[in-house]
Here is the input.
Amino acid sequence: MQQPFIEALDNRVLVCDGAMGTMLYAKGVFINKSFESLNVTQPDLVGEVHQEYVRAGADIVETNTFGANRIKLGSFGIADKLHAINEQGARIARHAARESAYVAGSIGPLGIRIEPWGKTGIDEAQIYFREQAQALADGGVDLYILETFRDLNEIGAAIDAVRSVSDLPIIAQMTTEEDGSTLDGTPPERFAPDLERRGATLIGVNCSVGPAPMLETIERMAAATKLRLAAQPNAGKPRDVEGRNIYLCSPEYMASYARRFILHNVRVVGGCCGTTPEHIRQIKMAVRAARANGTERPGVSGSERARSARAPAPNIVHGPPVPRERKSRLAHAMTHGRFVVQVELLPPRGYQTELVIERARALKIRGVDAVNIPDGMRAGARISALSLAVLVEQQAGIETVLHYSCRDRNLLGI
Here is the structure.
């Protein structure tokens, strides 16, 4: 029996899945087709995407129903299939998730402007959201996720509509520009408490921007609300590469920001456009690591975390720095201006290191001060330079200098 969603949030950070549209497009579905209609026409394909995310470690899978409202389905002439598309979407996700993940019923904006910006009234908008929410409930979702909303009035109507048919948890997510404000200029300091007041269980942001600008928005939200937060950034902004839009954020980069999101009361972290199961796999690993080393601290509100982050760091007493000449024999020789000799030894192609170590011993006997071990020789596959350096120092007793190539890593990577 799966733990209730709210209890799970109390115990750990949950990882949401990544992009559905990105994956369906990669599997050959053209963008001029209703992706949501695949729930009834190609359910196995949709289920395959869900399963890939579950295998990657997702704790939450979102139904393929983001645009399955009457307005958007109507543009494809399939509004009459609304209930079937949403209910089947929930059932497909449930089959893939089984007991390994929670199923979140995905509800997106209607695709039209509502009052006071458009002709559609709040009551009419609620009717559209309500019928989608009911169909998802009939399909057996565990919670709802309202995502990629730009208008507070519209997401407010969606929250009220969901609450009228279900008491399941609601994750309410806005989408913002890089400055943290919505398209109409509403800052997180305003929309965060507003979503809290409207009755959302968690609030957050998704889509539009990559991890770095989203982190700044999350920090501002954490200072403005006591609710737990959700963050699902895009894999950066798409770049045009030979006529194709490519998202360039690597899975490792996304994972590094997942660790930072957690420090600001984010309890649900995942990915949006451009993310894949590999992004989610790396995020899951980062979340596990944060839990293991105590970075993940459940039960602390965003405002408390913000105050903690602003608090002055405790005074740390350090011992006196070690003089350079005492750090190593090589450092001593260089400090006193003595001419030193290094000889380069290449890492072997296989895992046999005996010959290299014997050569290092011979060089030491002949007065060589250090062995220079390069990495990435002509892009060939060789044993790790760092691992070899450790073995040489331990078994040959001579100092080593790692010769790093910086063509594929920055200082932080080194």
Remarks:
- The chain has two domains: 5-310, 324-403.
- The chain is about 40% helix and 15% strand.
- The domain at 5-310 is CATH 3.20.20.330 (TIM Barrel).
